Structures are given as C-alpha cells and as structure tokens.
Amino acid sequence: MIHCRLVVGKALPVNTPSPMCENTHVCKPNVAEQTRKLVVLLNATAQDLFSIYLDCQGDPFSSHLDELCNANGTNFPDFDVNRTSHKKEIMVALYKVFAFLNASLGNITRDQEELNPTAKELRERLQNTTKTTRGLISNLTCLLCTNYKVSQVDVTYGKSSKGMTVFKKKQQGCQVLRRYVQVVSQAAQVLLPHLSQA
C-alpha cells in the first residue's frame, strides 16, 4: 500500500523522490574517479577559455582586467571547503558551483554568438566546457543522491544577460569566467585527497 498525504486536494506519495534524484539509480563504480578527472580537465582548460574570451572582447577588457572583471559583482557561489572537509560537504559545494556555472555558460555562449559570431574557437571552447560541466553535474547528482542521500541542494544562478547593454554582457562574462578559473583550481586541489580514495 502506498502511503499518501493530502496536499492542496491531491494525494501524493509520501516518499516521492525529489526532482534532483528522480532519475538517479546506482552510480557506476568509477563515478568518483570520473568526477575528479572532469574537474581536473575543467581546471586544465579554464585559463585558456578565459584568455580567449578576453581576446575576443577587446579593449578595455584586455587592458583593464582588474577593474572590469572583478568577480565580486557576480553571485558565483563560494567554494568554502578544503581538504579536511567531509566528502559530502565537498560534493554539495561542487554541485552549487557547477550548477551556477552551467547556467552562466548558457548566457555567455548565447551572448558571444550574437556579439562575436566569427569567434569560432571561443564558441567551441564554451560549448566543450558546457558539455563537460553537464557531465560533471550528472556525476555529482548520482553521488549526492545515491552515496550521500542528499536529495536537494539550494543553488543560485547568475543574472540573465537578456536586456543588458553590450558592455554589461561582456563584463558579466568576464567576471564569471575569471571567478570560474579561481574556483575550479581550488576544486581540483581539494579533490585530490578525497576522490582518489573513494
């Protein structure tokens, strides 16, 4: 018999899986190592993506990096875990960071298709980073739902760039990608002792 409760006139099963975990089953045996390798890959390519982005935006972004690309104006989640943090805390922090990044990459890619339609290498790198990020989110979801019994993570997303001026679109992309370079480097360092043992 299914246990139900009444919610606004509808009977819902009590143990309904959260949307985050509803399609998650048993994780593949190597999912922890694959997750670590995806973070290492993103870390290895992040600085090049940022450099190409800057080149494509031109002046004043390439010449006034510290002023224009200060990441304090973004909602980029803090990555406030370290090597002594519990694995579960690290996985939650990673999920928050890469869920935010995935949404931001969508905005940045859309904007660059409009602002720099001939910048093929930039668009390819943005698309590859997005694909890798989505794979990472899938792995993190599996680990969180299956191994750590976390069914909900509160995530924040960046501001939509729709309706922004060209300058603001370029600036937001610059801020997000600069912070991404910093955070993915931290994440790669933190994961070394944790996921190689998992």
Automatic annotation (TrEMBL):
GO terms for cellular component: extracellular space. The keyword Translocase does not apply. InterPro entries: 4_helix_cytokine-like_core, Leukemia_IF, Leukemia_IF/oncostatin. It comes from the Eukaryota. Keywords: Cytokine, Secreted. GO terms for molecular function: cytokine activity; growth factor activity; leukemia inhibitory factor receptor binding. Gene3D superfamilies: 1.20.1250.10. LIF has the capacity to induce terminal differentiation in leukemic cells. Its activities include the induction of hematopoietic differentiation in normal and myeloid leukemia cells, the induction of neuronal cell differentiation, and the stimulation of acute-phase protein synthesis in hepatocytes. This is Leukemia inhibitory factor.
